[in-house]
Amino acid sequence: MIEEVLERFGLDKTKASYKPFGSGLINNTWKISSPEGDYILQKINTHVFSTPKDISDNILMIKQYLDRVAPKYFFVGPVQAKNGDSVLEFDGQAYRLFPYVANSITIDEVEHAEQAYHAAKQFGKFTRMLEAFNPGKLKISIQDFHNLPFRVTQYQHALSIASKQRLNAAEWAIKEIDRHFDIVKTFNQVTENKELTVRVIHHDTKISNVLLNKDNGSGICVIDLDTVMPGFFISDVGDMMRTYLSLSNEEETDFDNIQIRPEMFAAIYKGYMEEMDKILNASEKQLFIYSGKFMIFMQAIRFLTDFLSGDVYYKITSTRHNLNRAENQIFLLNKYVESEPVFNDIIANRIKDLELISK
Q1: What is the largest CA-CA distance in the chain?
Q2: Could you tell me the CATH superfamily of domain 113-358?
Q3: What are the tens digits of pLDDT across the range 324-336?
Q4: Which of 1, 81, 129, 297 has the smallest CB count inside 10 Å?
Q5: Do residues 214 and 237 make contact, with C-beta atoms less than 8 angstroms apart?
């Protein structure tokens, strides 16, 4: 089937070779080597992204805009199939093809602060370059993806239908979520007061969604634009906080291994604000630290909701898997909150350094 797909994209299927590529959990991805060049082929998971053409339309709109206003900005756009479509529907599946960026790598874990800095800078640059683009033109690829009130409503419904056994097992997690409900109150307040500007936001800022230079580790561009939608900057910054600050991810069951690395926070702040300092309003800058609490809390209740609902969304390998994930994120949230004074000092020192430089 892949050979037939490649032919429909105009490649010589008799001379092309392919192999699985990357570590993504949603789409199937292959690296293609052909006489026409090297490419990345993806089969889109239509269970997650039910309208793949909407995603393609979003990417094309962004590409056309950037080609017009910032032609030097490096942006990896899709290759059109022979019929002119950027998403090829074939045999009940949806495929797309991108040029492979030579001398580039992706990584799955942030090992040192320089990586966090380059990633944050690229995500900030992406949003900055699209500051004048109307985000309302973009189609919603996942409805209510980072809608915290919606996730809270799902959680409260799960509480009402959960079995007594699961409620008992989740007693600590439920109490901790209740203890952090001020995060929801803050979100409702800042959105009602329109303190956050709707922008073009990536929404999935894990480190593997940035291409890095293979030789020197510098950032090249952001990739995997399926979740690019209108949103708030706290989604992108918050997801970096959630996934970069601790070396352990949400699958870690030894919670003693979940530790906050302040140098990663400093790197995220430096990289992102180098691009976004003049773009964010004063209220948004005050919410920079809050963004981490927002995303960690939301992911915690998503895992806990799934556990209480009987594990209907996330793949699991044991009965407690989603509960372990939820407890993991709550532990990370507690560590994050404990580190807020350190984060405030980092920001204050960074601002002081910039003021000295400008004098």
Answers
A1: 64
A2: Aminoglycoside phosphotransferase (APH), C-terminal lobe (3.90.1200.10)
A3: 999 999 999 999 9
A4: 1
A5: no
